[in-house]
Structures are given as structure tokens and as C-alpha cells.
Design a protein that fits this description.
The complex is a heterodimer of chains A (266) and B (253).
Chain A (H helix, E strand, L loop, with lengths): L8 E10 L9 E9 L3 E5 L6 H8 L7 E6 L2 E2 L4 H7 E4 L11 H11 L14 H13 L15 H13 L5 E5 L7 H18 L2 E5 L3 H4 L4 E6 L2 E6 L1 H8 L7 H12 L4
Parallel strand pairs in A: 3-8, 3-9, 6-7, 7-8
Antiparallel strand pairs in A: 1-2, 1-4, 4-5, 9-10
Chain B lengths: L1 H13 L1 H30 L3 H30 L2 H6 L5 H29 L9 H25 L3 H18 L11 H7 L3 H14 L5 H4 L4 H28 L2
Helix pairs in contact in B: 1-5, 2-3, 2-5, 3-5, 3-6, 3-7, 3-9, 5-6, 6-9, 6-11, 9-11
The chains are: A alpha/beta (266), B mainly alpha (253).
Chain lengths: 266, 253
């Protein structure tokens, strides 16, 4: 698969440039790629490569300096409000309000996304909301934690809660910005099992940034950023075939060799 | 907007230390300093100093609480919670309006406690004055919220916002006539106090309370119409400019 061949692209990025005020160089320097609908797409790159900048632009929280980007045919600059209805995001840093309960965090999100009308308490919310939240919580093992303050939840439970929250509005694209960073292997495995199930059931496109190469191995397409530019794009198998030594070694070997050839992190 | 406002109210109700401090401080000012000032301010103005303090502290509590609450937007930004809000399909205007409503509700709840306490210690608050007092309280809230939003819009971190906020609020407690009416103040002091947004909110609250009483001339320094126009104008200007600048800075880093 090449950057330009993807049939039904849900995300299109063309010559995207971002220059932060006062920065000595461009954080993104003409990046271009496509993300086919329904795939697990992984954006890799060393620290400072431009991954978070790319995610911020695609989720409309950061304006690009130049270039174009669209989600489901909607321009991220001109059609911001519509783009936001199509995306969900699980941020790298925790974004739950620790002063609220788990359910209150979900409720706020559901109301902000127009999924359900606001009501002041759980009991007064629509029956459909309560059923949906209960079902999602049971799948993720959160059922007993729904009405407890977030500050009492473990890191893994909070991360599950963020995923439940992000998927509630049934977004077309789910952005996962290092979703398993800092979690133990058991929790990471459980989270990925749920994400695979969610992807299969909802046909949602997942846009993943991660430093865990084993997570990237499961992706349908991988795009490697370095110095704000795309230096490689393809399936994990293709990238391994092209770069790893010996041939068909690990994606990590291929990735490190690729970075080495590109000149390493900036 | 209601969901965002509810979040701010719940944050206050569940933060018991903050709740205690936010209630204790104005009550201390009303009773403690009000009583201390009775032999001086009370004698000169021929007004009850505790009542003077109550009207001033009521406006100041609303103003300060709403302003400080808006500064918590920066805390949200630093904990990335703001990104959840900003990536939602709700307009920036609605997000800011929800925050303003929430913090004003919080401020009004605190003011309600100050009012209840004042009545309990014998400050007369006739029911007929309540509608005018409520309007004055709303004006003080919105002016404070506007100042808080404008402060946050120009300052990058919570630490710098709080430092500047203290610098903006403390002089106003002194120069806005919160505990001591400005009637008869030195001319230079009067001129300086004209630059204090809280002065107009305090004066408007006193105008609502002392209307139709012999103490009106001693307690109120400016026409209520001027106070309303200035307070409302500052609220509108700060909220509009602060909201626009805050949204712009969020997207154009």
C-alpha cells in the first residue's frame, strides 16, 4: 500500500506544515499521507517527530501553518465543528476530571457531543444512556466503579474510562495518543482486546500513536515520521521486508534502521 | 452549557477545604473587621459598620469568586482536561458561557451564605430590597468573571495567573470601598479608585441596599446608573475580549 493508493480514505493529509511561534524549525514539514477507512493506522516516530502535532491538527485543537488535512471529507480548518463530531480521542495525558465520578465524566462528554440531553443526575438521564453506559462499563470491567470518584481509580481503570468516554458518541475516527503509556502489560493486553472488539463491532478507524512497536505490528498501515516529514509508509510486513536485518525480522529492527538512515531524531 | 456549569458547582461542593475558606473569609471580614471599624467608620458615617462591611464584602465575594473560578480554566489546560472540552463539537463561546455560568452559580451560592449569615447576626435585609440586590450581585459576578477570563487569556500558566490575580484583587479591596465607604475620601484616592472595577460593583450593591434610607448619601458615591453602565460594560468587554483572545491563543500556539 502506498501513501497515495488507499481507496476509501477517511483521513487525508497533504503537505501539512506547522511552525510553532519562536521555534527554530518546522514541527511538521510537508507531511502527506492517507488513512483508509476502518483500518488501524499507526503513526510512529521518535520524540519531536511531529506525531502529537499531527494529532492536534487533525482533532482541530491546533491550526496548521499551511497544507491541508481532512477527516471524512471535512476540512479540519474550515469545518471544525463537523470534524469534531466525527472524532473521538484518548489523550496521552489523563484528561478525566478527578473531582467528578466516573459516570459524571462520561455524562459530561455525552452531553457535550449531543448524544443525550443534559440531566443533573444519573437517575434522570435517558434510559438509553444508562443502558449504553452500563453495557460499556460491564465489557471493560468498570461496572463497580461507575459512581466512584475518579481519584480513587487506578491508572488502568482511568484509561479504560477514557476509552469508554471517547467511544460513546460513536466517532468515525478514534485517535489514540499513546493510550497504553505507563500501564502494566496485563492492563495493556486487556485494553487492546477491547479496542479490537470495538473496532470490529463499530467499524471505527483507529489512529494510533505509540512507542510500543508490538502495538504497531497489529496495524494495517504504519507511517513513520522523522523531523516533521513522512519517511516511510506501508504495512508492517512491507516495512519489515524493506528494512529489517535479517529480512522479515521485527518491526522494531526495521524502524530503528529506518531512523538511522534518515539521520536519527532531530 | 448546563453540563459545564454543573461541573464547576460539583467541584466546589466536593472540595471541602476550599468551601470552608471561601465561606470563612467573607464572614470574618463582615463580623470581625466590621465590628473593629464601628468606633471610627460607624461614627463618622453614622451607619452601622457591620452593615457597611456586609454590602461591600457581598459584592467583593461575588467578584473575587467568579474571577478566581475563571482562572481555573488554566488549571484545566495544564491538566489537559481543557483539550477534552476544546475537541468537542461545542462552540468555544458555549464552553466559555458554561464556565461563566458555573462560576457565577458558585459565587452566588457563597454570597447566599454571606447573606444568610448577615441576617443571622442582625443585619436587616428587607425582602423588598432582594430583587435589586440580586441584580447587583449578578453584575458583580459577571464583572469578576470577565476580569478572570481576561487575565487567563493573556497569561500562560495557572501560577502566573494567580500571582497577577492577587495583584489585581488586593488593591481593590482597599481602594474600592469594600469596608470603608469612599464618601469623603481624598481626591487622589477617589481618582485612583475610579480605575477599580470592584468600586462600581460595591457601589451598585450599596445603592440597592441603602435605597430610600437616610444612609444612602453616606454609603453611595456614584449614581446607580453610572455604576450599572460601567459594571455591565466592563463585564461585556472583558468577557468578549477575553473569550476571543483565549480561543485564539488555544489554537495558534
Amino acid at each position: 500500500m502506498s501513501r497515495r493508493e488507499a481507496g476509501d480514505a477517511v483521513i487525508e493529509v497533504g503537505d501539512l506544515v506547522k511552525h510553532y511561534r519562536g521555534a527554530p524549525f518546522n514541527a511538521l514539514d510537508g507531511a502527506s499521507f492517507l488513512v483508509p477507512a476502518g483500518t488501524l493506522f499507526c503513526l510512529l516516530g521518535p520524540n519531536g517527530a511531529g506525531k502529537t502535532t499531527t494529532t492536534s491538527i487533525l482533532t482541530t485543537t491546533l491550526a496548521p501553518t499551511s497544507g491541508r488535512a481532512s477527516i471524512a471529507g471535512l476540512d479540519v480548518v474550515a469545518d471544525q465543528a463537523q470534524v469534531r463530531r466525527e472524532v473521538g480521542i484518548v489523550f496521552q495525558q489523563p484528561t478525566l476530571d478527578v473531582n467528578l465520578t466516573a459516570e459524571e465524566n462520561i455524562r459530561l462528554h455525552a452531553v457535550l457531543y449531543g448524544c443525550y440531553p443534559w440531566r443533573p443526575t444519573w437517575r434522570l438521564m435517558a434510559g438509553a444512556y444508562r443502558r449504553q453506559v452500563t453495557e460499556l462499563a460491564e465489557i471493560l470491567g468498570l461496572a463497580g466503579w461507575l459512581h466512584r470518584p475518579v481519584r480513587t481509580l487506578s491508572g488502568g481503570t482511568r484509561r479504560k474510562l477514557e476509552i469508554v468516554r471517547a467511544l460513546l458518541p460513536q466517532p468515525r475516527v478514534l485517535f489514540l495518543d499513546e493510550p497504553t503509556a505507563g500501564l502494566d502489560p496485563q492492563t495493556r493486553r486487556g485494553l487492546w482486546a477491547y479496542l479490537r472488539e470495538a473496532r470490529a463491532e463499530r467499524a471505527v478507524t483507529m489512529f494510533l500513536t505509540t512507542h510500543y512497536l508490538e502495538e504497531a505490528e497489529a496495524a494495517d498501515a504504519v507511517c513513520v515520521l522523522a523531523g516533521g516529514r513522512v519517511i516511510e509508509y506501508g504495512s508492517p510486513a512491507d516495512i519489515k521486508a524493506r528494512y529489517s536485518r535479517p529480512a522479515h525480522g521485527s518491526l522494531e529492527d526495521a524502524y530503528l534502521l529506518l531512523l538511522d538512515r534518515a539521520g536519527g531524531p532531530r | 452549557m448546563a453540563a459545564i456549569a454543573q461541573r464547576d458547582v460539583l467541584k466546589l461542593l466536593r472540595d471541602r477545604p476550599r468551601l470552608a475558606v471561601n465561606l470563612a473569609f467573607p464572614l470574618f471580614l463582615v463580623v470581625g473587621l466590621g465590628s473593629l471599624l464601628q468606633p471610627t467608620v460607624g461614627v463618622v458615617t453614622r451607619l452601622n459598620a457591620v452593615t457597611i462591611a456586609f454590602t461591600g464584602v457581598l459584592a467583593a465575594t461575588l467578584f473575587q469568586s467568579a474571577a478566581a473560578g475563571m482562572i481555573s480554566i488554566v488549571q484545566d489546560r495544564e491538566t489537559d482536561f481543557a483539550r477534552v472540552l476544546f475537541v468537542s463539537p461545542v462552540s468555544r463561546a458555549t464552553l466559555i458561557a458554561g464556565k461563566v455560568c458555573g462560576e457565577c452559580l458558585v459565587a452566588l451560592a457563597q454570597a447566599g451564605c454571606v447573606l444568610g449569615f448577615a441576617v443571622a447576626i442582625g443585619v436587616p435585609v428587607p425582602g423588598a430590597k432582594l430583587p435589586a440586590l440580586v441584580l447587583a450581585c449578578l453584575a458583580a459576578c459577571l464583572a469578576g468573571a470577565g476580569l478572570g477570563l481576561a487575565t487567563v487569556a493573556v497569561l500562560p500558566t495557572q501560577r502566573s495567573a494567580m500571582d497577577v490575580f492577587q495583584f489585581l484583587i488586593i488593591p481593590q479591596y482597599v481602594l474600592a470601598g469594600v469596608l470603608v465607604p469612599l464618601r469623603g475620601a481624598a481626591p487622589w484616592l477617589n481618582v485612583v479608585s475610579l480605575a477599580m472595577p470592584l468600586r462600581y460593583a460595591v457601589d451598585l450593591t450599596r445603592a440597592a441596599y441603602y435605597a430610600g434610607t437616610p444612609g444612602y448619601q453616606a454609603a453611595v458615591v456614584t449614581s446607580p446608573l453610572v455604576d450599572s453602565v460601567v459594571t455591565g460594560g466592563l463585564a461585556a468587554a472583558f468577557l468578549a475580549a477575553g473569550g476571543l483572545l483565549f480561543s485564539y491563543r488555544e489554537r495558534t500556539r
